[in-house]
Input
Amino acid sequence: MRILITGANGQLGRRLVDMLQNSHDVAGYGRDELDITDADLTAHRIRNFHPDLIIHTAALTKVDYCAENPDQALWINGYGTQHVAYAAREIDATLVYVSTNEVFDGQNTDVYLEHDRTNPINPYGYSKWVGEQVVMQLLQKYFIVRVSWLFGHGGNNFIHTMRRLADEHDRLRVVVNEVATPTYVDDFADALVQLIDTPYYGIYHLVNEGRASRWAFARHILDLSGYADKEIDRIAAAEYPRPSKPPEYAVLRNFVAARRGIVLRDWREAVEDFLQKEAAMSG
Output
C-alpha cells in the first residue's frame, strides 16, 4: 500500500513512519515539505505521490496558543484538513484524520462514545471539530480517530514537564478536576495500524484503558520516576488560569474498535513502559 503521512516530524508522525516504512511504500512530509494551508501545494504533493491512504497527523496542537490565535487554529486544523480531504477525494484515497477528546464539552458524567454529541468549548477543540466535519462532508472512505493526552518520545509532553518541575520545585500544584485518558503514542500507533487494515470506515476512539485526573497522572509519573516523596497539591482548574478552557471530564471510551479486536492496555502500564524506554534511550 502507498501511504502518505502528514506531520511526519511530530511524535505520532515519526512513529507511524518508523512502523510502516518496512511493509509499505511510505512518504512522510513535515511542515516544511507540505504546508497544508497551501491548497495548491497540498494537492500537488498528494497527487504526485498518489497514495492509497493518507494519515493526516499534521495539526496545531498547542491548546493555549490556539486560544490566543483562534483564526490560525481554524485555518490549520479546520481548513488545512479540508485541503487534504479535497486532494484525497480527487485521487480516491482513504483518509485517516487524527482528532481529539476536546471536540466534547466535558459536561458528561460518564464516558464519551464515538457518536455522542460533540460540543467543543475552546478554539482548539472547535478547529479540530471543523476538521471532522469537512472530512465527513467530502469523503466516504475515512477514519476519524480521536485520542486524548497523547505522550510519546522525542518531544515535550506532560510526563516530561512533570519530571522537569519535580527537579525544579520542592512542591507542585496540579489540577484535579480535569479528567481524561493518558495515551501512549506507541500504543495509539499500533492500534491505528491495525485499524487501517480493516474496511470499516467511521469514527473511532483509540485511547489507553482507564481514566485519570491531571493530578493522578502526575502522581503516577512521579511515583515511577523516583519522586514518591514529592508533594503535589490538588488544585481546581480555576486556580490555574490559562488562555484555554479544557473540558473537565472528557473521557473517551474505545467502544467500536474494541469490538473489532483492537484494544489498548491500561494507561498506567503504558506510562511505566514509556519511562523504561526513555531510560534505555538516555542510558
Summary: The first helix runs from residue 11 to 20. The chain has one domain: 2-157+181-208+250-264. The radius of gyration is 19 Å.
